[in-house]
Amino acid sequence: MAIFLTKESKVLVQGMTGAEGMKHTRRMLEAGTDVVGGVNPRKAGQGVDFDGRAVPVFGSVADGIAATGADVTVVFVPPPFAKAAVLEAVDAGIGLAVVITEGIPVHDAVVFQAYAGKSDTRIIGPNCPGLISPGQSNAGIIPADIATKPGKIGLVSKSGTLTYQLMYELREIGFSSAVGIGGDPVVGTTHIDCLAAFEADPDTELIVLIGEIGGDAEERAAAYIADHVTKPVVGYIAGFTAPEGKTMGHAGAIVSGSSGTAEAKKKALEAVGVRVGSTPSETARLVLDRIAVTA
């Protein structure tokens, strides 16, 4: 099984005809994703050829859903127009919106997250790599060739790069799904949402949680693990050497005083039984040790 994304998922790409949209649509198709259309009002009725496969372009998300039965959209729309693109997808009734776009103003993200919260649309992101269920589907920019093998690990991460590294280091075990939730101050799907989904997934046997400095998402995840998660969890927190008051990479990755430090997050997770690695490679070894014990 998998969470949020399966081989039955039908994917639209908002911004498919742009440079990034074209590049990653091709990669998604190569990974086996059922990309059923793109969305660009100015190019409605046209088609784009991806190595012999013609993908139609629709004028709106609603038109794409009506014509194809799409239930997922991947958003590559530039920041000034991303809010409108997400609101359009929500209004059309899409089930899952994966917002890849980086640099969306926080106010815009607050607006479309609140709007989606009143609907049945799940948002992943923004500023995220998307999600992959190896052997089934890939919605976003995660390189499919680093972990093409389905397996028993579920991964949820704030960091795209660390998602890729852990998937590569654990490629022999394989993954049920890996979800990059994004590192902006306001995101849709959270660590807790993914923990709940992996806990309910019978094919996920171990969960990897990757966090980073800033905010309290990892502390809240630790509290949720204590009360609701029975499966083993292994964690990693990026940013142990980050200087105070300086944003590191993601807009939400900033330490202020004692708030949001990597050490505080590590202690919170370890207090509820999560083994936390000091480096990504050590984290992978902790996973391998735990898998060996439970095998």
UniProtKB/TrEMBL annotation:
Residues 4-104 form the CoA-binding domain. The active site is at 250 (tele-phosphohistidine intermediate). It is an enzyme of class 6 (ligase). Its EC number is 6.2.1.5. It catalyses: GTP + succinate + CoA = succinyl-CoA + GDP + phosphate; succinate + ATP + CoA = succinyl-CoA + ADP + phosphate. One of its GO terms (molecular function) is ligase activity. Pathway: Carbohydrate metabolism; tricarboxylic acid cycle; succinate from succinyl-CoA (ligase route): step 1/1. Gene3D superfamilies: NAD(P)-binding Rossmann-like Domain, Succinyl-CoA synthetase domains. CoA binds at residues 17-20, 43, 100-102. Substrate binds at residue 164. Keywords: Ligase, Nucleotide-binding, Tricarboxylic acid cycle. Succinyl-CoA synthetase functions in the citric acid cycle (TCA), coupling the hydrolysis of succinyl-CoA to the synthesis of either ATP or GTP and thus represents the only step of substrate-level phosphorylation in the TCA. The alpha subunit of the enzyme binds the substrates coenzyme A and phosphate, while succinate binding and nucleotide specificity is provided by the beta subunit. Belongs to the succinate/malate CoA ligase alpha subunit family. PANTHER family: SUCCINATE--COA LIGASE [ADP_GDP-FORMING] SUBUNIT ALPHA, MITOCHONDRIAL, SUCCINYL-COA LIGASE SUBUNIT ALPHA. Heterotetramer of two alpha and two beta subunits. This is Succinate--CoA ligase [ADP-forming] subunit alpha. The gene is sucD.
